[in-house]
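Summarise this fold before class:
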Amino acid sequence: MSSSAHSSVQSTPFWWDDCDFPSLPIKPVSTTCDVVIVGGGYTGLSAAIELARAGRHVQLFDRQPLGKAASSRNGGMASGSIRPGRRELIKRFGEERANGILLEGKAAREDLWRFMKEEKIDCDFFLSGLFDGAMTPEEADDLRRHADLLHRTLGIEAFAVERADVRRYIGTDLYIGGLVRKDIGGLHPAKLLAGMIRIAASTNAVIHENTAVLGSTEEANGVRVRTERGEVFAKNVLICTDGYTDGFDPWLRRRLVPVRSRIIATERLSKEVMDRLMPARMMHGDMRKLSYYYRASPDGSRILFGGRDGTTEGDPSAPTVHLRAELARLFPELAGVGLTHSWFGYVAMHRDMVPRIFSTGNTIYATGYCGSGIVWARWLGKKAAFKVLGDTEQVRSAFDFDPAPKAIPFYSGRPWFIPMVYSMYERHDNKTLRRINRR
């Protein structure tokens, strides 16, 4: 894509075109409260709603206007996926916790569906199902085993797709098989966030947007929090910042790597094209190291195609060009398609690659979603709130465990190694693609 063509593509999220975030009044910062929450995405808002409804005096701080970070920038695929497989989870954490992590995904998804219904959040939710594509026989075998695990162990409607049936789900020759699971849906992430902001603002929670937290210090019986608008002493602090964690918490920053995830949106496509390319209107992904995720827009008129960006500064055109090429690899007839949007947001990766709640003193962390934040962020924000409330029954979670993820050697917040990792994964995927082409 030429630079002139790229300049006509909007760099703001597609989701912002038809979603306005509630305007919040500026309120004074109280010098004391029960709980300070840092971060105003799905996690922080979920915690604020639970705590305020339980009668706690809550102050939530975000350094940006609410709605501008990852919670309104993602692909809207409510999967609650976990990157390590069951075998790897057992190796790291033992069989009991591994099974608990997998089982909790089902509970977290169902709880999100219930929450949206009960709170009357209209965010274009559709229980579409997910298709994961396999490019090699080995990948097809892996997905076949995973479908069996989901069905047999978790009671999820899931099944393998053979080559002859792939086009029932996606109009491409890139995949020789795949997996379908029916328990995953799509939604409009910005509308979900706007709904959560509205609900939190209707409680007694005090929301301070455009107010950065500068640091915190553990003291007797609580934590002193420094903000741009003064100090606050709180009994507990909840850190809910994930990929947008900055220098206010150097300890956490050494454990989370912000990785850009970028999405492109095509121009409007005819119904005939959409019926041919995405006949089932499902959520989609595949098994490449540089994983791609894609879906139809909620109105079914265009394709949103996302993947890891590989850059760390500025907003260069190369990642957009790359995603457009991968879209054309999947759907050759879209090689010349126009784009309307190309935007990125930060997801947080870490050494364990499993979302987690953990604590140090009176500070509780809910973070590390590794690109699957829609389901996990709201769920763990809620669980972190129950932890503050001392509700031992409600707080029970396979994701609530210490120690924290390990610090990353030679890393203090600037992800200098991302281009190298991206290049390594790209070489791996290109090797697989060359094998496919030879076959």
